[in-house]
Amino acid sequence: xxxxxxxxxxxxxxxxxxxxxxxxxxxxxxxxxxxxxxxxxxxxxxxxxxxxxxxxxxxxxxxxxxxxxxxxxxxxxxxxxxxxxxxxxxxxxxxxxxxxxxxxxxxxxxxxx
Amino acid sequence: xxxxxxxxxxxxxxxxxxxxxxxxxxxxxxxxxxxxxxxxxxxxxxxxxxxxxxxxxxxxxxxxxxxxxxxxxxxxxxxxxxxxxxxxxxxxxxxxxxxxxxxxxxxxxxxxxxx
Lengths: 113, 115
Known about the structure:
The structure holds 2 protein chains of 2 kinds. By secondary structure, chain A is mostly beta strands. In chain A, strands 2, 5, 6, 10, 11 and 12 form a 6-stranded mixed beta sheet that branches. In chain A, strands 3-9-8-7 form a 4-stranded antiparallel beta sheet, with no helix packed on it. In chain A, strands 1-4 form a two-stranded antiparallel ribbon. By secondary structure, chain B is mostly beta strands. In chain B, the strands form 2 sheets. In chain B, strands 2, 4, 5, 6, 9, 10 and 11 form a 7-stranded mixed beta sheet that branches. Chain B has a 4-stranded antiparallel beta sheet with strand order 1-3-8-7, with no helix packed on it. The interface between A and B is medium-sized, with 23 and 27 residues.
């Protein structure tokens, strides 16, 4: 069975500081990995995805993520956060031939001025 | 492309009542998914459709839940005899098989409160 762990429930960073959100997955084969962002009371917006190829993927809003098979990780990064990045971030995995996304429990990001 | 839409956005109902939610996917998308998200958790898969065929249902989808996609376009999710434990955000997503086949686009959700 596939699973996702996001070890950090809540992270606070200063505006302009760098950000890294952690994601570890469990899946028996090559996974397809995603990061979504959810603003309060809203649905989820896809930030980026990894299917294959280059392990460093670029997404929208200046985010990037790196797939590390040896560590079963897919951490999300941003070099300089903006106040508008405050939201809940979800990592998700799906396996080939499977249709259902399995999400982590999310990391809530707070930005302080 | 107007995105995935859901109606209503909020629903308050009394325990024991039936409720129905609607989802309109992105127009050319042939796959439609329902997820449920409770407070402090990530979304959990409920069911999905390929066109009008319901291909998979989660064990989370009890007999009180039924989903349809009669013409392969919009979908409805009905909950009968609601319970307080049904209070959650119900999210709909759609995707196009064959192009970014695992890329699911989500609607804004319907927040259900059962009193």
